[in-house]
């Protein structure tokens, strides 16, 4: 009987230990991109007390070093939204509260990687980064008082914050402004679809005439000889549309336009992009 009871108790302990090991963890994502998996024990005004999974030692982490916490329940708590200089009264206060470059984010502009769709399918990251770089190159020549952040810097900050093509959907535009340390972010969608085909036929023909005298019948005979070549070519046409939006660090849209390109080439988005950028509030002649 005692052996049976002991076996029963051991089974319960084993089940509890397995349940504890399989339980989901709280995930802390720091501003430097480091991920900590474990349990949030306590939250104070300045720090968070945290234990790693499977350990009992309690660590203290400053809130200013944390981007967000994803709790085991699925709830997400952001910590990377420090007060803006206009809200604190001084740029120094904004810098002290954390966030990359927020002490001097005024008139800074970051360009997010574009969403690029080809025939309804998401294109590769390379194409997305290419349009991002083309936007940077064009706006840099017409920035005026604005400072355009190099896409490589913006993309590195996004990666460090654990943001990619999928997870970026979980962030508001003011979140992204704060993470990138800018006052404005540019967001765009390019859609390119195959349209009809244009068939062009080109060619030329040559005709040679010859004549002779038939003395016997005292009549003229003529011969006609024709030769020529015909070339037929087919050109694929494309339908292109582009949506360009600009948001400020309060999450307010200050510009949003969609335009369908008049051109039918595969790179027609370039002309459309410049058209929209020239009419946005960040453009300066």
Task: Explain what this protein looks like in three dimensions.
This protein folds into 2 domains: 2-78, Roll (SH3 type barrels), CATH 2.30.30.100; 85-194 and 236-278, ABC-type transport auxiliary lipoprotein component (Rossmann fold), CATH 3.40.50. The chain contains 7 helices and 13 strands. The protein has helices spanning 2-22, 85-88, 91-96, 125-140, 151-160, 173-180, 269-278; strands at residues 26-30, 35-43, 47-52, 59-62, 66-70, 76-78, 108-111, 115-118, 121-122, 147-148, 184-214, 219-248, 253-260. It is 26% helix and 40% strand. Helix 4 packs across helix 7. The termini are far apart. Strands 7, 8, 9, 10, 11, 12 and 13 form a 7-stranded mixed sheet that branches. Strands 4-3-2-1-5-6 form a 6-stranded antiparallel sheet, with no helix packed on it. The chain is α+β, with helices and mostly antiparallel strands.
Itemize the secondary structure elements and their pairings:
Layout: H1 2-22, E1 26-30, E2 35-43, E3 47-52, E4 59-62, E5 66-70, E6 76-78, H2 85-88, H3 91-96, E7 108-111, E8 115-118, E9 121-122, H4 125-140, E10 147-148, H5 151-160, H6 173-180, E11 184-214, E12 219-248, E13 253-260, H7 269-278
Parallel strand pairs: 7-10, 7-11, 8-11
Antiparallel strand pairs: 1-2, 1-5, 2-3, 3-4, 5-6, 8-9, 11-12, 12-13
């Amino acid at each position: 009987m005692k052996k049976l009871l002991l076996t029963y108790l051991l089974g319960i302990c084993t089940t509890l230990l397995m349940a504890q090991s399989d339980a989901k963890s709280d995930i802390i994502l720091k501003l430097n991109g480091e991920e900590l998996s474990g349990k949030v024990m306590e939250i104070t005004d300045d720090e968070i007390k945290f234990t790693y999974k499977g350990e009992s030692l309690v660590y203290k982490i400053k809130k200013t070093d944390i981007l967000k916490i994803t709790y085991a329940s699925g709830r997400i708590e952001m910590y990377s939204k420090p007060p803006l200089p206009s809200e604190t009264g001084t740029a120094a206060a904004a810098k002290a509260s954390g966030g990359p470059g927020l002490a001097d984010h005024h008139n800074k502009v970051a360009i997010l990687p574009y969403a690029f769709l080809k025939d309804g399918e998401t294109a590769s990251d390379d194409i997305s980064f290419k349009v991002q770089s083309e936007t940077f190159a064009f706006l840099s020549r017409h920035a005026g008082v604005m400072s355009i952040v190099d896409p490589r810097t913006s993309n590195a900050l996004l990666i460090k914050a654990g943001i990619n093509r999928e997870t970026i959907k979980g962030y508001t535009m003011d979140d992204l402004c704060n993470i990138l340390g800018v006052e404005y972010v540019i967001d765009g969608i390019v859609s390119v679809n195959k349209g009809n085909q244009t068939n062009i036929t080109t060619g030329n023909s040559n005709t040679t005439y010859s004549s002779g005298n038939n003395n016997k019948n005292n009549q003229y005979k003529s011969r006609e000889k024709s030769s020529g070549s015909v070339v037929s070519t087919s050109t694929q046409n494309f339908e292109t549309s582009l949506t360009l939006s600009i948001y400020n660090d309060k999450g307010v849209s200050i510009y949003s336009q969609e335009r369908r390109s008049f051109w039918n080439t595969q790179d027609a988005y370039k002309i459309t992009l410049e058209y929209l950028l020239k009419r946005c509030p960040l453009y300066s002649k």
